[in-house]
Description:
By secondary structure, this protein is an alpha+beta fold. The protein has helices spanning 21-39, 57-74, and strands at residues 43-48, 51-56. It has a two-stranded antiparallel ribbon. α1 packs antiparallel against α2. The radius of gyration is 20 Å and the shape is flat. It starts with 20 loop residues before the first helix and ends in a 10-residue tail after the last helix. The model has no long low-confidence stretch (mean pLDDT 76).
Amino acid sequence: MSTKEPVSSEPETTKRGGPSGKAIAAILISIAALTFVFSNVGPATLRFLFLQFTMPAWGWFLAVLIAGVVIGSLFPWFRPKKKN
Length: 84
């Protein structure tokens, strides 16, 4: 008989009880990205084919950031495979 460890819904932590390296990296990258987004508040124009859109630059950066998160979750090629 083999015993399996119970599945926990708690955030990922290290053996020492602190946040994992991945969690710290994700927080630092998020802070840097949001700082960059909100530091660029001037108007920016996006031209695509014959269309033209103008809005604050932070709006475009935030839209690209959200699109990256969505695409990353739709195509999890680099995630480790689950062991059964």
